[in-house]
């Protein structure tokens, strides 16, 4: 059992292979947080807490004249609004009398073997190699209306601790949860840096590092999706932490909707971290006997730097979050029609491209947007998921059969959650879109969002999707979502439940994805939201890969994929070679460089094969062969960031190393060609210092490559890249 309970001292110590997390029930029944960090000798870390008489920090009634006891200063496990703790808190409840004052006290706890699950929500799961234990601590509010069950999942071998919360109304009156976050960690001592990933459409997950200062620093989304603008993964590190050294904590939210992540330093220099559903669009009505489950947060700790922290998440998400056939099966190299022909195609054009693609070794042909309803532009058609045979000039089955006859698989694009007003579905069911009565809704890309909190709406869309999937052989589905949500109102819910719509929408989305994958277990699902607008751990539970960005420019992608790699495995990152000049930036990069960058992901192509020059065909063939050869190393190996593309403008490097350290792939992209040769050197990571490695026939000890480094080949053309295979000498 990874959970130790010291009954005399009322201490819970949760232990993973390298970390420990500790809590203590104190004499008043308050659950204090005492420690999160390196694993050591089991010990009561509450000695670190200072009790002092602080002006304007009140005392709970039971403390009597003990003025040194204040929730405003103590490190707590699940702080609540209205308890005399004036910092940002995790829970805010509106009582039946309209008041918010609330305090929680320990009632009981339970240890369970295995990992808890949450109804309708994604969670990390246990496996034979990575078993889990669960601890549930139950607190009750002092007015005795509800319980708060705190869930902890300990995945010892993965160095991961997961958190969730269930609020259960056991009274006879209705309560309102105005905020119910999933996780709080109070750090009493130390200075920290906060690392977040901001962006916009076509520039997702840009890395930012700032010191945690006094006051509140928060990121989040109230767009109904996890968003391009901020990502629900962040790191908290010591100010000195680097890629390879130092104390690092990770917080990853397994949720695809609104989120809030917050770091704050209080008046006593203590740092509080909070993570959960953003309260902006949230107010949950809890009827007597009802329970609300907050989504899961996965926390990790290491003292080995940010690279090691990333590797914890990479492994955990690959093996204990992603599911289905493609968790392990090799994903096919694909050609997507979007940046190839956009919506301007018919069946003949697609078949011609598929023929070219098959010759080059491409394994899956994906027909993107434009095949259904009335859809030659993005102003109409969404909602009418029936094949436009007039446009294709054939049935879907005929198209798919021809593609299969070429030895390729066939895939298709959907945007199930959205609807154009110019569609038969909207004309029939205008109330199915999210809209507030008597207010014109905000449009995004000429479209509205369907009310996925409604089962009837979801069923209708799922039925349409199934009809398409059943009509032809289809092995891949891209699930897109191309706008932010607004006008959050569901026609079926009473006013008191409108604050639940945004969350119910996400539960509806998950319900539909679950049903779809249960019905088509072999279907490869790729998530997408205008590129990476919903790139989160919640989606990875349903779709093992997510289109990373609508920006396919290889140089811009360096920063986007660099930022993404902190919290997500390479196997999740959808990345394609597109044509040049690039459609988003106009930049021209070598074909080989575009492949080098796309290989740090799921790898595929997104260009019109008619534009490919004769001499480029063998190059592409070779790239595909190479990717297949390195597939295991890339997708299942250890990934190392060697430089930060924002900081080092000369060249950018990364590396994959096989778990047994017998082979590696070093990838370098030149950012600046410099005249009058200045040699650059890349220090490799993760090799075995004593092993001898071969690079292009030359022998190097691992220690030389890691300490001295490898001389970067001299680039003679702009943006030239290098893929350097390193193998142990046998
Ligand atoms: C989004 C996706 C693209 C493409 C288009 C189709 O922008 O990110 O890859 O599928 O939609 O409209």
List the helices and strands and how they pair.
Elements: E1 3-6, E2 11-15, E3 19-25, E4 31-38, E5 91-94, E6 104-113, E7 133-141, E8 146-155, E9 160-169, E10 175-180, E11 183-187, E12 193-200, E13 203-211, E14 215-221, E15 233-237, E16 248-253, E17 259-265, E18 271-276, E19 284-286, E20 291-293, E21 297-302, H1 306-320, E22 334-336, H2 338-341, H3 347-360, E23 364-367, H4 389-392, H5 396-405, E24 409-414, E25 418-420, H6 424-428, E26 447-449, H7 455-471, E27 476-479, H8 501-519, E28 524-527, H9 537-540, E29 545-547, H10 554-565, E30 573-574, E31 576-578, H11 591-598, E32 604-606, H12 616-636, E33 638-641, E34 651-657, E35 663-670, E36 681-682, E37 692-695, E38 698-701, H13 702-708, E39 710-711, E40 721-728
Parallel strand pairs: 22-23, 22-32, 23-24, 24-27, 27-28, 28-29, 29-30, 31-32
Antiparallel strand pairs: 1-2, 2-3, 3-4, 5-10, 6-7, 7-8, 8-9, 9-20, 9-21, 10-19, 11-18, 12-13, 12-15, 14-17, 15-16, 16-21, 17-18, 25-26, 33-34, 34-35, 35-40, 36-39, 37-38, 37-40
Helix pairs in contact: 7-8, 10-11
Report on this model:
By secondary structure, the chain is an alpha+beta fold. It contains 13 helices and 40 strands. The strands form 8 sheets. Strands 6, 7, 8, 9, 12, 13, 15, 16, 20 and 21 form a 10-stranded antiparallel sheet that branches. Strands 30-29-28-27-24-23-22-32-31 form a 9-stranded parallel sheet. A 6-stranded antiparallel sheet has the order 33-34-35-40-37-38. A hairpin with a 2-residue loop joins β37 (692-695) and β38. α7 runs parallel beside α8 and α10 (554-565) packs parallel to α11. The chain is globular. The model has no long low-confidence stretch (mean pLDDT 97). Bound molecules: alpha-D-galactopyranose (GLA). Alpha-D-galactopyranose binds at residues 338, 368-369, 413, 480, 482, 528, 530-531, 547, 550. The site of alpha-D-galactopyranose has 11 residues, from loops.
């Amino acid at each position: 059992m990874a959970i130790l309970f010291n009954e005399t001292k009322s201490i819970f110590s949760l232990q993973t292979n390298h970390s420990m997390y500790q809590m203590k029930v104190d004499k008043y029944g308050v659950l204090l947080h005492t420690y999160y960090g390196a694993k050591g000798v089991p010990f009561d870390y509450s000695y670190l807490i200072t009790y002092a008489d602080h002006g304007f920090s009140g005392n709970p009634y039971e403390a009597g004249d003990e003025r040194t006891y204040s929730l405003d200063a103590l490190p707590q496990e699940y702080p609540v609004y209205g308890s005399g703790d004036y910092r940002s808190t995790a829970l805010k409840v509106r009582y039946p009398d309209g008041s918010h004052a609330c305090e929680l006290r320990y009632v009981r706890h339970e240890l369970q073997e295995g990992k808890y699950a949450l109804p309708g929500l994604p969670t990390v799961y246990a496996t034979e190699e990575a078993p889990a234990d669960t601890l549930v601590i139950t607190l009750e509010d002092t007015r005795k209306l509800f319980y708060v069950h705190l869930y902890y999942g300990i995945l010892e071998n993965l160095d991961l601790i997961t958190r969730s919360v269930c609020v259960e109304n056991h009274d006879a009156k209705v309560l309102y949860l105005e905020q119910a976050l999933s996780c709080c960690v109070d750090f009493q001592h130390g200075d920290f840096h906060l690392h977040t990933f901001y962006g916009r459409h076509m520039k997702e997950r840009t890395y930012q590092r700032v010191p945690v200062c006094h006051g509140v620093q928060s990121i989040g989304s109230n767009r109904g999706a996890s968003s391009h603008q901020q990502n629900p993964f962040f790191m908290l590190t010591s100010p000195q932490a680097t890629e390879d050294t130092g104390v690092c904590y990770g917080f990853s939210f397994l949720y695809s909707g609104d989120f809030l992540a917050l770091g704050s330093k209080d008046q006593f220099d203590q740092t509080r971290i909070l993570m959960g559903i953003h309260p902006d669009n949230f107010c949950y009505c809890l009827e007597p006997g009802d329970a609300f489950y907050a989504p899961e947060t996965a926390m990790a700790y290491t003292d080995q730097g940010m690279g090691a922290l990333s590797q914890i998440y990479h492994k955990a998400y690959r093996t204990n979050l992603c599911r289905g056939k493609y968790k392990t099966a090799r994903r096919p190299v694909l050609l997507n029609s979007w940046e190839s022909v956009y919506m301007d195609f018919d069946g003949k054009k697609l078949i011609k491209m598929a023929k070219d693609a098959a010759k080059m070794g491409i394994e899956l042909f994906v027909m993107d947007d434009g095949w259904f309803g009335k859809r030659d532009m993005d102003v109409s058609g969404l909602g009418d998921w029936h094949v436009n045979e007039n446009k294709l000039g054939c049935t879907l089955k005929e198209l798919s059969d021809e593609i299969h006859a070429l030895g390729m698989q066939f895939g298709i694009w959907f945007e199930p959650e959205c609807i154009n007003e110019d569609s038969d579905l909207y004309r029939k069911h205008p109330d199915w879109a999210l809209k507030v009565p008597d207010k014109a809704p905000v449009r995004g890309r000429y479209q509205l969002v369907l009310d996925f909190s409604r089962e009837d709406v979801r069923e209708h869309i799922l039925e349409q999707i199934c009809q398409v999937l059943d009509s032809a052989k289809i092995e891949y589905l891209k699930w897109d979502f191309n706008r932010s949500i607004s006008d959050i109102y569901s026609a079926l819910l009473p006013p008191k439940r409108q604050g639940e719509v945004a969350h119910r929408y996400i539960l509806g989305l998950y319900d539909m994805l679950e049903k779809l994958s249960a019905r088509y277990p072999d279907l490869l699902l790729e998530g997408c939201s205008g590129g990476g607008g919903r790139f989160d751990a919640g989606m990875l539970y349903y779709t093992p890969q997510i289109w990373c960005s609508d920006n396919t420019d290889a140089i811009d992608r360096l920063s986007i994929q660099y930022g993404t790699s902190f919290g997500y495995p390479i196997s999740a990152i959808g990345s394609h070679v597109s044509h040049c000049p690039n459609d988003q930036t106009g930049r021209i990069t070598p074909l080989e460089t575009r492949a080098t960058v796309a290989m740090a992901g799921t790898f595929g192509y997104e260009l019109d094969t008619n534009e490919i020059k004769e001499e480029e065909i063998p190059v592409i063939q070779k790239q595909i062969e190479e990717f297949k050869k390195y597939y295991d190393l890339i997708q299942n190996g250890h990934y190392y960031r060697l430089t930060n593309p924002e900081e080092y403008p000369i060249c950018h490097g990364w590396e994959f190393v096989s778990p047994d350290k017998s082979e590696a792939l070093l990838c370098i992209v030149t950012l600046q060609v410099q005249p009058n040769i200045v040699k650059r050197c890349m220090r490799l990571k993760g090799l075995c210092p004593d092993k001898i490695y071969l690079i292009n026939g030359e022998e190097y000890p691992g220690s030389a490559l890691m300490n001295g480094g490898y001389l970067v080949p001299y680039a003679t053309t702009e943006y030239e890249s290098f893929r350097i295979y390193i193998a142990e000498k046998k």
